[in-house]
Design a protein that fits this description.
two-stranded antiparallel ribbon, single chain, mainly alpha, 684 residues
Amino acid sequence: MKKRNYILLGAVLAVLGLGASSCSDYLNVDRYFRDQQSTERIFSNKDYTLQWLSFCYSRLQGDNLEIGHSKACPTNFSDDQVFNEEGDRFSAFKRGEYGYGYSYGDLYKNSWPWAYDAIYQASILLNELHENPDFTQEELIDVRGQARFLRAYFYWLLLRKYGPVPIMPTEGADYTKSYDELAYPRNTYDECVEFITSELEIAATELFEERDNFNIARPTKGSALGVRAKVLLYAASPLVNGNTEMADFTNFDGKQLIPQEYDESKWAKAAAAARDMIEYAEESGLYKLYTFERRPVSTDEAYPATLTYPHPVYSTQPFPDGWANIDPFESYRSIFNGEIYADENPELIFTRGLNADNNDLVTDNSVADLVKHRLPSTYGGWNVHGMTLKQCDAYDMVDGSPFKKEYYTQWKGKYTSDENKDEHPYDYVKNGVWWGYTNREPRFYASVAFNGAVWNALSITEEGGKDYRNRQIWYYRGAPDGRINGSVNWCITGIGIMKFVNPNDCNKWGGSIYPKVDPALRYADILLMYAEALNNLTEGQHYQIPSWDGSETYDIWRDIEQMRRGLKPVRMRAGVPDYDDAVYQDPKQFFEKIVHERQIEFFCENQRYYDLRRWKIVEEHEGEQIYGCNTLMNEEYRDGFHMPVRVPNLQTSFSRKQYFWPIHYDELKRNKNLTQAPGWQYYD
């Protein structure tokens, strides 16, 4: 069997020279930068240089993770999933009770200072690393490219979360200066975008095009182009493109930080940036949607034979024109659950690897730890993550038609059995399951741990647990994994989560959790960004936009075939039909489809939270009440269990201040020129 060589971010640090030692042992600025000769000493030595760079990587962890559980990554929980831990922490987060002065404030405060730590370190490296006899010229350029990418990426994380932020001098702030001299105001949103994207363009010329599996968590040329496209898409979005409701987001001198006039050309620039990545992917052959070959037969319940809907067009065409030769369920599931090696996944554009800890962190923030939070108690999990009914209902039927609310009354009392198994031929749902969970699209079964879903737990080795392999798990009251009074270890919505779970995963009886990498940016995102950006252009309006390196000029317009070039492959990989021309021709309808597609495709990937905000539709989604199953019902009253109810302990709301995160009191106290985001306190 081929050995699994997963790279983890901690391993990057070890390779770079940190290992289990504290970053501060190597990277104390006072220790090394008392004078210019110390600078020369570090950056003329390969080990010291790599140790310096490793500090920047270390700050991608903790509060700067893209994918993690609620303590590390609360923005992974929008209107699609919830957590049931530590009292009312979920509701407090949804009420905007985070930051200085709140009981849970200490949980989410490191993203700002950690990002600027890394930005500072990267800037020093870029200014000081010129020649080093221990590096080849190619290695030297790549190390500079890594530092440049990381600096831009940290600014991107800050911009997405906090809005416009101060762009520090590229030569690095002088630590010998007073706080007053280091007090920089926020730059405008457009200034931040210009700096980030220009830096990523340079990084794209410096970074290696490929990484081996031991270096998969390092950025590549594709990473730089992909993140650049993401930044430009956000810059074109309604939140920061002509948003007069943010007119009061200013510096102390009155300088407005959010553009007040709408500029459609920003959508054209975003489309061109996504096109850059698509053209590069196709020319280089390095990036594409991951697909798993069709599995005609199988004797393994955890890895079933391929089931697809017999569409008159798409089920007869090979991918990307159809799904005749692929397994849509396994293609999607395998991206996340560790089934394929990271370096063999052409869809990964940038990843943090396994999100593993180093000495700076006190909790396990790996993707495997995320799985433990949603694993049923039966299998040694904490059983505290649940999917909202809204997210569950968003998954389409297998023929691509939407799931309808009427089904709750139409299918009341209808459950799977031997007698009706021929009525749900497009799934492997076992007996006793409510009918609404049958005949759904493949991504549903890769993501939703519905009541009665099978958990495989194949890694169990101890005799006492072997009978629990391939077992249905129930969330009825009184069931082992159902509601428990006086405890938080139960699925509060009655709908569990299967995404990121591997068929082998188990945390007891000698079992183990498969390692898996986080998909911080993947090619499916680029394709959907391209379609979205084109959709926002006025019909008949053309824009001439140069490519990222100036080698050609794109004619960017609302081209339906190019929009289909972005959206259709994602739909085909998922095993659901493409939309007809009428949808593509109607900008409003197409936008609604993009919103829907991103909700499904990127569930639990820290996208929904920010998408709703940049589109300015968050209030209607996160402001509404959360619904789930009625977990007070036992199996005897199973009809009542499956009828939607409001989840009483998950109150939620939204106010304008929650578009951006607050600056912590410590930073405001230190920097007298730093303004707070609208709606948040200055703590005077």
